[in-house]
Automatic annotation (TrEMBL):
Record-given protein name: ADP-ribosyl cyclase/cyclic ADP-ribose hydrolase
Residues annotated as domain TIR: 6-167
Domain of life: Eukaryota
Catalytic activity: NAD(+) + H2O = ADP-D-ribose + nicotinamide + H(+)
Gene Ontology terms, MF aspect: NAD+ nucleosidase activity, cyclic ADP-ribose generating
InterPro entries (alphabetical): Thioredoxin-like_sf (IPR036249), TIR_dom (IPR000157), Toll_tir_struct_dom_sf (IPR035897)
Record keywords: Hydrolase, NAD
A Pfam family it matches: TIR
GO biological process, one term: signal transduction
EC number: 3.2.2.6
Record Gene3D superfamilies: Glutaredoxin, Toll/interleukin-1 receptor homology (TIR) domain
Protein backbone atom coordinates (compact mmCIF):
# COMPACT_ATOMS: atom_id res chain seq x y z
CA UNK A 1 0.00 0.00 0.00
CA UNK A 2 1.36 3.40 -0.97
CA UNK A 3 2.40 5.65 1.85
CA UNK A 4 1.70 9.37 2.08
CA UNK A 5 4.63 11.55 1.08
CA UNK A 6 5.64 13.75 4.01
CA UNK A 7 7.92 16.04 2.02
CA UNK A 8 8.98 19.11 3.98
CA UNK A 9 11.66 21.75 3.68
CA UNK A 10 12.84 21.48 7.26
CA UNK A 11 12.60 19.12 10.24
CA UNK A 12 12.53 20.82 13.65
CA UNK A 13 14.31 18.94 16.44
CA UNK A 14 13.76 20.36 19.94
CA UNK A 15 13.03 19.57 23.58
CA UNK A 16 9.54 20.11 24.97
CA UNK A 17 10.54 23.11 27.10
CA UNK A 18 10.78 25.28 23.94
CA UNK A 19 7.64 23.87 22.27
CA UNK A 20 5.21 26.62 23.29
CA UNK A 21 7.58 29.55 22.98
CA UNK A 22 10.67 29.82 20.78
CA UNK A 23 10.19 26.70 18.59
CA UNK A 24 6.50 27.41 18.07
CA UNK A 25 7.27 31.00 16.97
CA UNK A 26 10.00 29.74 14.61
CA UNK A 27 7.62 27.17 13.11
CA UNK A 28 4.94 29.81 12.47
CA UNK A 29 7.50 32.16 10.91
CA UNK A 30 8.72 29.45 8.52
CA UNK A 31 5.15 28.54 7.64
CA UNK A 32 4.21 32.19 7.02
CA UNK A 33 7.14 32.50 4.62
CA UNK A 34 5.87 29.57 2.55
CA UNK A 35 8.05 26.77 3.91
CA UNK A 36 6.75 23.33 4.88
CA UNK A 37 8.15 22.51 8.33
CA UNK A 38 7.83 19.27 10.31
CA UNK A 39 7.16 19.88 14.01
CA UNK A 40 6.01 17.03 16.22
CA UNK A 41 2.86 18.10 18.04
CA UNK A 42 2.75 15.44 20.75
CA UNK A 43 4.52 15.36 24.07
CA UNK A 44 7.26 12.74 24.04
CA UNK A 45 8.21 10.78 27.14
CA UNK A 46 11.88 10.31 27.95
CA UNK A 47 13.02 6.82 26.98
CA UNK A 48 10.52 6.30 24.17
CA UNK A 49 11.78 4.89 20.89
CA UNK A 50 11.53 6.97 17.74
CA UNK A 51 8.31 6.21 15.89
CA UNK A 52 7.90 5.86 12.15
CA UNK A 53 6.39 9.34 11.78
CA UNK A 54 9.51 11.03 13.14
CA UNK A 55 11.84 8.88 11.04
CA UNK A 56 9.76 9.59 7.94
CA UNK A 57 9.91 13.31 8.73
CA UNK A 58 13.72 13.24 8.86
CA UNK A 59 13.99 11.06 5.75
CA UNK A 60 11.64 13.22 3.69
CA UNK A 61 12.98 16.62 4.71
CA UNK A 62 15.62 18.69 2.92
CA UNK A 63 17.22 20.06 6.09
CA UNK A 64 17.01 20.22 9.87
CA UNK A 65 16.95 23.03 12.41
CA UNK A 66 18.06 21.76 15.82
CA UNK A 67 17.08 23.90 18.80
CA UNK A 68 19.56 23.07 21.56
CA UNK A 69 18.27 24.01 25.01
CA UNK A 70 19.43 23.28 28.57
CA UNK A 71 17.48 20.00 28.79
CA UNK A 72 17.85 18.80 25.16
CA UNK A 73 20.23 15.95 26.12
CA UNK A 74 17.88 14.71 28.85
CA UNK A 75 15.64 13.27 26.14
CA UNK A 76 16.86 10.05 24.54
CA UNK A 77 14.31 10.77 21.82
CA UNK A 78 16.10 14.03 20.93
CA UNK A 79 19.49 12.33 20.95
CA UNK A 80 18.23 9.57 18.63
CA UNK A 81 16.85 12.25 16.31
CA UNK A 82 20.24 13.95 16.31
CA UNK A 83 21.99 10.72 15.29
CA UNK A 84 19.57 10.11 12.39
CA UNK A 85 19.89 13.73 11.22
CA UNK A 86 23.68 13.50 11.15
CA UNK A 87 23.56 10.18 9.27
CA UNK A 88 21.46 11.84 6.55
CA UNK A 89 23.75 14.89 6.60
CA UNK A 90 26.80 12.74 5.85
CA UNK A 91 25.43 10.97 2.75
CA UNK A 92 23.40 13.67 0.97
CA UNK A 93 22.98 17.40 0.43
CA UNK A 94 20.91 17.56 3.61
CA UNK A 95 22.05 20.50 5.72
CA UNK A 96 21.77 21.37 9.41
CA UNK A 97 21.21 24.73 11.11
CA UNK A 98 21.94 24.46 14.86
CA UNK A 99 20.37 27.08 17.15
CA UNK A 100 21.66 27.49 20.70
CA UNK A 101 18.85 28.61 23.00
CA UNK A 102 20.06 29.64 26.46
CA UNK A 103 22.98 27.21 26.19
CA UNK A 104 26.62 27.56 25.14
CA UNK A 105 28.00 25.68 22.13
CA UNK A 106 31.06 24.83 24.24
CA UNK A 107 28.89 22.84 26.68
CA UNK A 108 27.37 20.83 23.81
CA UNK A 109 30.63 20.11 22.02
CA UNK A 110 32.43 18.97 25.18
CA UNK A 111 29.36 17.65 27.09
CA UNK A 112 29.74 20.02 30.03
CA UNK A 113 27.12 21.14 32.54
CA UNK A 114 23.64 19.70 31.96
CA UNK A 115 24.78 17.80 28.86
CA UNK A 116 27.48 15.88 30.71
CA UNK A 117 25.14 15.11 33.62
CA UNK A 118 22.39 13.90 31.25
CA UNK A 119 24.71 11.51 29.38
CA UNK A 120 25.95 10.00 32.63
CA UNK A 121 22.35 9.40 33.75
CA UNK A 122 21.58 7.65 30.45
CA UNK A 123 24.35 5.07 31.03
CA UNK A 124 22.16 3.10 33.41
CA UNK A 125 19.60 2.19 30.71
CA UNK A 126 21.26 3.12 27.41
CA UNK A 127 24.97 2.45 27.89
CA UNK A 128 25.23 0.99 24.34
CA UNK A 129 24.05 4.31 22.87
CA UNK A 130 25.90 6.85 25.00
CA UNK A 131 29.11 6.88 22.92
CA UNK A 132 27.16 7.36 19.70
CA UNK A 133 25.24 10.25 21.28
CA UNK A 134 28.48 11.77 22.54
CA UNK A 135 30.05 11.58 19.06
CA UNK A 136 26.94 13.19 17.55
CA UNK A 137 27.13 16.11 20.00
CA UNK A 138 30.81 16.63 19.19
CA UNK A 139 30.10 16.56 15.46
CA UNK A 140 27.18 18.98 15.55
CA UNK A 141 29.27 21.28 17.72
CA UNK A 142 31.59 21.75 14.75
CA UNK A 143 28.76 22.91 12.47
CA UNK A 144 28.24 26.66 12.20
CA UNK A 145 25.10 27.66 14.09
CA UNK A 146 23.26 30.64 15.58
CA UNK A 147 23.22 31.82 19.20
CA UNK A 148 19.87 33.27 20.31
CA UNK A 149 20.49 36.87 21.31
CA UNK A 150 18.44 40.05 21.56
CA UNK A 151 14.75 40.15 20.67
CA UNK A 152 13.43 36.72 19.75
CA UNK A 153 11.17 38.11 17.03
CA UNK A 154 14.10 39.80 15.26
CA UNK A 155 16.29 36.74 15.70
CA UNK A 156 13.59 34.46 14.21
CA UNK A 157 13.12 36.76 11.19
CA UNK A 158 16.87 36.71 10.54
CA UNK A 159 16.94 32.92 10.98
CA UNK A 160 14.20 32.40 8.38
CA UNK A 161 16.12 34.65 5.96
CA UNK A 162 19.35 32.71 6.60
CA UNK A 163 17.51 29.41 6.13
CA UNK A 164 16.15 30.57 2.76
CA UNK A 165 19.64 31.52 1.57
CA UNK A 166 21.18 28.21 2.63
CA UNK A 167 18.36 26.21 1.08
CA UNK A 168 18.79 28.04 -2.25
CA UNK A 169 22.54 27.34 -2.25
CA UNK A 170 22.15 23.68 -1.30
CA UNK A 171 19.25 22.95 -3.67
CA UNK A 172 19.56 25.42 -6.58
CA UNK A 173 17.41 23.25 -8.86
CA UNK A 174 14.38 23.39 -6.56
CA UNK A 175 11.57 25.90 -6.85
CA UNK A 176 11.33 27.50 -3.43
CA UNK A 177 8.49 29.52 -1.88
CA UNK A 178 8.27 33.16 -2.87
CA UNK A 179 9.07 35.51 0.06
CA UNK A 180 6.04 37.18 1.55
CA UNK A 181 4.92 40.25 -0.40
CA UNK A 182 6.64 39.27 -3.67
CA UNK A 183 4.98 38.11 -6.86
CA UNK A 184 6.24 35.15 -8.86
CA UNK A 185 8.35 36.21 -11.83
CA UNK A 186 6.44 36.21 -15.09
CA UNK A 187 3.02 36.61 -13.41
CA UNK A 188 1.00 39.76 -13.12
CA UNK A 189 -0.27 40.80 -9.73
CA UNK A 190 -3.97 40.27 -9.23
CA UNK A 191 -6.35 39.93 -6.27
CA UNK A 192 -6.75 36.22 -7.01
CA UNK A 193 -3.02 35.49 -6.93
CA UNK A 194 -1.88 34.04 -3.62
CA UNK A 195 1.58 35.20 -2.58
CA UNK A 196 2.01 32.11 -0.46
CA UNK A 197 2.84 28.90 -2.26
CA UNK A 198 0.45 25.99 -2.54
CA UNK A 199 0.53 23.53 0.35
CA UNK A 200 0.66 20.59 -2.07
CA UNK A 201 3.62 18.28 -1.50
CA UNK A 202 5.18 17.81 -4.95
CA UNK A 203 8.21 15.60 -5.61
CA UNK A 204 9.75 15.42 -9.08
CA UNK A 205 11.70 12.14 -9.45
CA UNK A 206 13.96 12.34 -12.48
CA UNK A 207 17.32 11.26 -13.93
CA UNK A 208 20.43 12.98 -15.24
CA UNK A 209 19.16 12.37 -18.76
CA UNK A 210 15.99 14.24 -17.95
CA UNK A 211 17.89 17.18 -16.46
CA UNK A 212 20.13 17.49 -19.52
CA UNK A 213 17.65 16.17 -22.05
CA UNK A 214 15.43 17.59 -24.72
CA UNK A 215 12.46 19.88 -24.83
CA UNK A 216 9.89 17.59 -23.19
CA UNK A 217 11.92 17.32 -19.99
CA UNK A 218 12.56 21.05 -19.92
CA UNK A 219 8.84 21.62 -20.40
CA UNK A 220 8.10 19.71 -17.19
CA UNK A 221 10.44 21.95 -15.21
CA UNK A 222 9.08 25.05 -16.91
CA UNK A 223 5.48 24.20 -16.00
CA UNK A 224 6.38 23.50 -12.36
CA UNK A 225 8.38 26.72 -12.11
CA UNK A 226 5.63 28.81 -13.67
CA UNK A 227 3.00 27.61 -11.21
CA UNK A 228 2.44 28.80 -7.66
CA UNK A 229 3.72 25.53 -6.18
CA UNK A 230 6.71 24.37 -4.18
CA UNK A 231 8.43 21.23 -5.39
CA UNK A 232 11.65 19.26 -4.89
CA UNK A 233 13.68 17.61 -7.63
CA UNK A 234 15.06 14.19 -6.66
CA UNK A 235 17.68 13.03 -9.16
CA UNK A 236 17.76 9.23 -9.10
CA UNK A 237 21.05 9.17 -11.03
CA UNK A 238 22.87 11.17 -8.33
CA UNK A 239 21.24 9.37 -5.39
CA UNK A 240 20.03 5.81 -6.26
CA UNK A 241 18.27 5.63 -2.87
CA UNK A 242 15.53 7.77 -4.44
CA UNK A 243 14.56 4.85 -6.72
CA UNK A 244 13.97 2.62 -3.68
CA UNK A 245 12.12 5.47 -2.01
CA UNK A 246 9.82 5.85 -5.04
CA UNK A 247 9.15 2.10 -5.20
CA UNK A 248 8.27 2.07 -1.50
CA UNK A 249 6.10 5.15 -1.86
CA UNK A 250 4.05 3.72 -4.73
CA UNK A 251 4.15 0.11 -3.52
CA UNK A 252 5.54 -1.11 -6.85
CA UNK A 253 8.56 -3.21 -7.85
CA UNK A 254 9.10 -1.24 -11.06
CA UNK A 255 8.72 2.49 -11.50
CA UNK A 256 8.93 4.80 -14.49
CA UNK A 257 10.98 7.96 -14.68
CA UNK A 258 10.37 10.85 -14.70
CA UNK A 259 7.55 10.73 -12.13
CA UNK A 260 5.66 13.57 -10.46
CA UNK A 261 4.30 12.72 -7.00
CA UNK A 262 1.57 14.96 -5.61
CA UNK A 263 0.58 14.42 -1.97
CA UNK A 264 1.87 10.85 -2.04
CA UNK A 265 0.24 9.78 -5.33
CA UNK A 266 1.53 9.35 -8.87
CA UNK A 267 0.15 12.19 -11.01
CA UNK A 268 -0.33 9.73 -13.92
CA UNK A 269 -1.35 6.79 -11.74
CA UNK A 270 -4.67 5.03 -11.45
CA UNK A 271 -5.64 6.82 -8.22
CA UNK A 272 -7.09 10.31 -8.34
CA UNK A 273 -4.64 12.93 -7.07
CA UNK A 274 -6.00 15.07 -4.25
CA UNK A 275 -5.11 18.74 -4.10
CA UNK A 276 -3.27 20.44 -6.98
CA UNK A 277 -6.14 22.80 -7.70
CA UNK A 278 -4.55 24.39 -10.78
CA UNK A 279 -6.40 22.14 -13.25
CA UNK A 280 -4.77 23.61 -16.38
CA UNK A 281 -1.28 23.07 -14.99
CA UNK A 282 -2.22 19.57 -13.85
CA UNK A 283 -3.43 18.60 -17.34
CA UNK A 284 -0.31 20.04 -18.99
CA UNK A 285 1.96 18.00 -16.73
CA UNK A 286 -0.03 14.80 -17.28
CA UNK A 287 0.00 15.32 -21.06
CA UNK A 288 3.79 15.68 -21.22
CA UNK A 289 4.40 12.76 -18.87
CA UNK A 290 2.11 10.45 -20.85
CA UNK A 291 3.90 11.47 -24.08
CA UNK A 292 7.25 10.56 -22.48
CA UNK A 293 5.89 7.21 -21.25
CA UNK A 294 4.50 6.39 -24.71
CA UNK A 295 7.84 7.18 -26.38
CA UNK A 296 9.62 4.99 -23.82
CA UNK A 297 7.18 2.14 -24.53
CA UNK A 298 7.69 2.41 -28.30
CA UNK A 299 11.46 2.55 -27.82
CA UNK A 300 11.44 -0.65 -25.77
CA UNK A 301 9.24 -2.43 -28.35
CA UNK A 302 11.55 -1.41 -31.20
CA UNK A 303 14.67 -2.46 -29.27
CA UNK A 304 13.10 -5.83 -28.43
CA UNK A 305 12.12 -6.39 -32.06
CA UNK A 306 15.57 -5.42 -33.32
CA UNK A 307 17.21 -7.70 -30.77
CA UNK A 308 15.14 -10.68 -31.90
CA UNK A 309 15.91 -9.89 -35.54
CA UNK A 310 19.64 -9.72 -34.80
CA UNK A 311 19.59 -13.05 -32.91
CA UNK A 312 17.68 -14.75 -35.73
CA UNK A 313 20.11 -13.37 -38.32
CA UNK A 314 23.15 -14.63 -36.37
CA UNK A 315 21.59 -18.08 -35.88
CA UNK A 316 20.63 -18.34 -39.54
CA UNK A 317 24.13 -17.36 -40.71
CA UNK A 318 25.67 -19.92 -38.36
CA UNK A 319 23.40 -22.72 -39.62
CA UNK A 320 24.27 -21.95 -43.25
CA UNK A 321 27.96 -21.90 -42.36
CA UNK A 322 27.66 -25.16 -40.40
CA UNK A 323 25.83 -26.90 -43.24
CA UNK A 324 28.45 -25.81 -45.79
CA UNK A 325 31.23 -27.08 -43.54
CA UNK A 326 29.35 -30.32 -42.92
CA UNK A 327 28.82 -30.86 -46.67
CA UNK A 328 32.52 -30.33 -47.36
CA UNK A 329 33.69 -32.68 -44.62
CA UNK A 330 31.20 -35.39 -45.57
CA UNK A 331 32.53 -35.44 -49.16
CA UNK A 332 36.08 -35.77 -47.85
CA UNK A 333 35.32 -38.38 -45.17
CA UNK A 334 32.55 -40.87 -46.03
CA UNK A 335 33.79 -43.78 -43.97
CA UNK A 336 34.46 -44.60 -40.32
CA UNK A 337 32.26 -45.28 -37.33
CA UNK A 338 30.29 -42.77 -35.32
CA UNK A 339 33.18 -42.08 -32.94
CA UNK A 340 35.42 -40.93 -35.81
CA UNK A 341 32.87 -38.99 -37.84
CA UNK A 342 32.89 -35.18 -37.52
CA UNK A 343 30.64 -33.62 -34.88
CA UNK A 344 29.04 -30.20 -35.13
CA UNK A 345 27.73 -28.24 -32.16
CA UNK A 346 25.32 -25.39 -32.83
CA UNK A 347 25.34 -22.71 -30.17
CA UNK A 348 22.74 -19.97 -30.12
CA UNK A 349 21.02 -17.90 -27.49
CA UNK A 350 18.03 -20.20 -27.33
CA UNK A 351 19.38 -23.62 -28.37
CA UNK A 352 22.35 -25.97 -28.04
CA UNK A 353 22.63 -29.27 -29.90
CA UNK A 354 25.27 -31.69 -31.20
CA UNK A 355 24.81 -33.25 -34.59
CA UNK A 356 26.68 -36.42 -35.71
CA UNK A 357 26.21 -36.80 -39.46
CA UNK A 358 24.98 -40.27 -40.50
CA UNK A 359 26.76 -42.29 -43.21
CA UNK A 360 24.49 -43.94 -45.76
CA UNK A 361 24.47 -44.30 -49.52
CA UNK A 362 21.20 -42.42 -49.73
CA UNK A 363 22.54 -39.53 -47.67
CA UNK A 364 25.77 -39.31 -49.71
CA UNK A 365 23.88 -39.33 -52.96
CA UNK A 366 21.84 -36.34 -51.71
CA UNK A 367 25.01 -34.47 -50.82
Amino acid sequence: MAKEASFCHVFLSFKGETRNNFTCFLYEALKADGFIAFMDKSDICVGDELNSTIMEGIRSSMSAIIVFSQTYAESTWCLDELVLILERYKVSRYFILPIFYEVEIHDIKHQLGNYGIALEKHRARHNHKVEKWREALVEVGNIFGEQVEGLQSTFIQNTVKLFRERLAVRFPECHHPVPKGQVLQGMSASPSLRHESSADKILFYTTTRANNGGGVYKSLRKILESGNVVYEVRNCSDEPMYVSELKELLGKKKVRLPTVIVNGKDLCGEEEVEGFYDIEMKQELKGILKAIYWNQYLGKKIMKKERKRYIFKMQFEWIISALCTFKTQCKCNVSGDAEQRPRFTAVGEDFLFTFVPPVSNRFLSDV
